[in-house]
Amino acid sequence: MNTVFQQVDISHYIYLSTVLFSIGLFGVLFRRNAIVLLMCIELMLNSVNLLLTALSTYMGDAGGQLFVFFIMVVAAAEAAVGLAILVMVYRNTRNTTVNFLSNLKG
Amino acid sequence: MSALPIPFLVLSFITILCALYVVTSKNPVHSVLALIVAFFSISAHYVLLNAQFLAIVNLMVYAGAIMVLFLFVLMLLNLGKAAEPIKSNAWALASAISAGSLLLILTAAFQKSGEQVYRNPSETVGLVKNLGKVLFGEYLIPFELTGALFIGAMVGAVLLGKRDSGDHESSALAEEKGASS
User: Fold this and answer.
1) pLDDT value at residue B155
2) How many Cβ atoms are within 10 Å of B129's Cβ, its own excluded?
């Protein structure tokens, strides 16, 4: 009995994560709400995670999956700090759209 | 290549559908919920790839911690129906063209490169035992550094999120806010 990943070619995982990454990029370019922007970045990180995991499994190398682990750690730290900054911005401007932050330019 | 297995197709469909809904939904709370579903299906992908450790960590860290943090901030700031400025169709078209050309370029590059992926499929590489041996052997120093990163992030988040009082700058801001409201 073959497992699923022996029946699925690696190229399908590559295409799937490419599509997910492009959707995330579209969101980053299209949306203006900073929280949704952060979520789109998480989506892009997850598509890369999926690709790294697939390649690591198909190559029989544990390094890729450990990189996914480290990416998750960095993503957690990034989300915490990013949301803290957003709360700060909302407190001062009553707004979370990124258009508003163009006031920051000197 | 014979027909793809049903679980892979269903999970890929759910993942892409939820990702599209995250991007296009007007309500940020709906975006968060769709993203949680997308993360669950990505975890299921990890299970299909025999990466059980990553599946569980993905569920706990992403679906459990990060998305709850997002939801918490959305509810706390009461941004459920936040008015996002309406953008022109030209902007949507430009974004779609940019993302679409990235998709096209990556796909074309992969197809041009041919099937050069080194294949040595292993069913046991994603198990906790193997990953732990590599993590605490080869990757011990990066692992310790992530601890330092977490402490830095935690202190930074607390400092940023704290409502400071008595500070000259913040009292001036509070006055300004009181005057405007």
Assistant:
1) 93
2) 8
User: Where residue B98 falls among pLDDT bands split at 50, 70, 90?
Assistant: very high
* From B1, B76, B99, residue closest to A29, measured CB to CB: B99
Chain A CB within 8 Å of residue B101 CB: no
Q: Is residue B122 part of a domain?
A: no
Residue B4 lies in a domain: no
**Domains in chain A, CATH or no CATH each:** 10-95 (1.10.287.3510)
**Cα–Cα distance measured from residue B85 to residue A39, given in angstroms and rounded to the nearest whole number:** 18
ipTM: 0.90
In a domain, B147, yes or no: yes
| SS3 category, A33 | strand
Domain housing B163: 139-181
Residue of A29, A86, A99 to mutate when probing chain B, most B C-beta within 10 A: A29
Contact list, A10 vs chain B (CB under 8 Å): 117, 119
Please tell me what DSSP assigns to residue B86. P
Instruction: Give the number of domains in chain B.
Output: 1
Task: Take residue B87 and report the two structure tokens written for it.
Answer: 């953008």
- One-letter identity of residue B110: F
CB contact under 8 Å between A57 and B121, yes or no, is yes
Give B174's pLDDT tier (boundaries 50, 70, 90): low
From the CA of B166, how many Å to the nearest CA of chain A?
A: 16
pLDDT recorded at residue B181:
46
